[in-house]
Write a structure and sequence with these properties.
- This protein is of the alpha+beta class.
- Helix content is 49%, strand content 21%.
- The strands form five sheets. It has a three-stranded antiparallel sheet with strand order 6-7-8. A two-stranded antiparallel ribbon has the order 1-2.
- The longest helix has 38 residues, at 234-271.
Length: 396
């Protein structure tokens, strides 16, 4: 099963790359630019076909892909027929759309995958179904229920295992965590709850008992709820997917900001005797291995495995989409920064009544591009070494 998980991740990664490059291809064609090549992989060509003016195919090294648009720099020699279809001849807004289309589709793909996760596959969470009713409300972690203990409010009012708590004070809640928040804030205050017992709705009045937690008094009713798979309606699924996308983006930004400070730890974990930090940096090989271990473990149900895999691919797409927008060459964001600079120069020239300046020659930034490339390649090599010598272990 592990090889199945790794292969599934590889296929999903290649599809993500193809969708990214399709964004560049479709928008470039939309604006009349000439696209001569659309390839997955780099290096030696192993298969291709030509449709119209574009050659599509696969190359030997499955480490990404590219979409070749003519006239990306002013120095590129073009035939008279292609001169007007060069990338640099397009407007600044068109260039930005073409460059940003790949990242945009990464965000769309991640968002759609999350909607699928919440609406169809479901997530593992506490449900509103009672698994067990406590005999008492212990005031300490070591207290054993006795006649002197605080009685369980749930047991007093007759809640039984198998009951579903469907309403609190007349309101329905999508998640049990929301009900817990209400109960915890209601110590000593009577609540009107509705339970579903084998299809019959029963209204009960219950007063949560008080208990100290981290120095604060909270309300407790004395039930332990079942863990299950929860799915949501279309509107809720979209809302949750949007919220989760925002959280992934925020975490991705935080991870990038803290990346330099994590490299020394990664080096020590790779070549020293330190255990690999599961919350630390991980490369593509590491993510593939995690996907394989997820598929292999018996600690998860098939549905939970699918949910975990979808979450991995969605998170990866959102991170890659954001990473590609960094204003560093050779990333798309670096080319977008150059296009924006051209737009600023054009605006200034127009305001002064001057002729439109020639597009900025991105080849002049090759030294900076090479520095960024070397740094990225070095980090990728370090991550590859870490993922092989000291891989992240999942605690299933």
């Amino acid at each position: 099963m592990m090889i199945v998980g790794i292969l599934a991740f590889a296929v999903a990664l290649l599809l993500s790359v193809m969708i990214h490059e399709a964004g560049h291809y479709l928008t470039a064609k939309k604006f009349g630019m000439k696209v001569t090549e659309f390839f997955l992989g780099f290096g030696q060509k192993i298969w291709s076909f030509t449709r119209g003016e574009t050659e599509f195919g696969l190359k030997a090294i499955p480490a990404g892909g590219y979409c070749k648009i003519v006239g990306m720099t002013p120095r590129e020699e073009l035939s008279p027929a292609d001169a007007d279809r060069a990338f640099i001849k397009a407007t600044v807004s068109q260039r930005l759309i073409v460059l940003g289309a790949g990242s945009f589709l990464h965000f769309v793909l991640g968002f759609v995958l999350l909607i699928t996760l919440f609406s169809s596959v479901g997530i593992t969470s506490l449900t509103n179904k009672v698994e067990r009713v406590s005999e008492c409300i212990p005031q300490t972690s070591t207290e054993v229920c006795s006649p002197q203990s605080v009685p369980s409010p749930a047991k007093i009012v007759g809640i039984k295992a198998g009951d579903k708590i469907v309403k609190v004070n007349g309101l329905s809640y999508d998640e049990w965590s929301e009900v817990v928040t209400v109960i915890r804030s209601s110590a000593g205050k009577q609540l009107d709850i509705t339970i579903d017992r084998n299809g019959t709705l029963i209204d009960l009045l219950i007063t949560p008992a008080s208990r100290l937690l981290d120095g604060q008094t909270i309300g407790v009713i004395g039930v332990v709820n079942e863990i299950g798979t929860i799915t949501y309606g279309p509107i809720t699924a979209v809302t949750k997917a949007a919220t989760f996308t925002g959280e992934i983006l925020q975490n991705s930004v935080t991870a990038l900001i803290s990346l330099p400070s994590r490299i020394p730890d990664l080096i020590n974990q790779t070549f020293g005797n330190q255990e690999r930090d599961p919350e630390g940096l991980v490369g593509v090989v590491g993510v593939a291995r995690v996907s394989g271990e997820t598929a292999e473990t018996k600690a998860l149900t098939t549905r939970e495995k699918i949910a975990t895999f979808i979450l991995i691919i969605a998170s990866l797409n959102i991170f890659v989409g954001m990473f590609n927008l960094l204003p560093l060459l050779p990333l798309d964001g670096g080319h977008m920064a150059v296009a924006i600079a051209d737009g600023v120069r054009n605006t200034r020239a127009k305001a002064k009544g001057l002729a439109k300046p020639a597009p900025f020659d991105v080849e002049r930034l090759i030294p900076i591009t090479m520095v960024v490339f070397v740094v990225m390649a070095s980090l990728s090599l370090l991550l590859l070494t870490a993922d092989i010598l000291n891989p992240i272990r999942l605690n299933f």
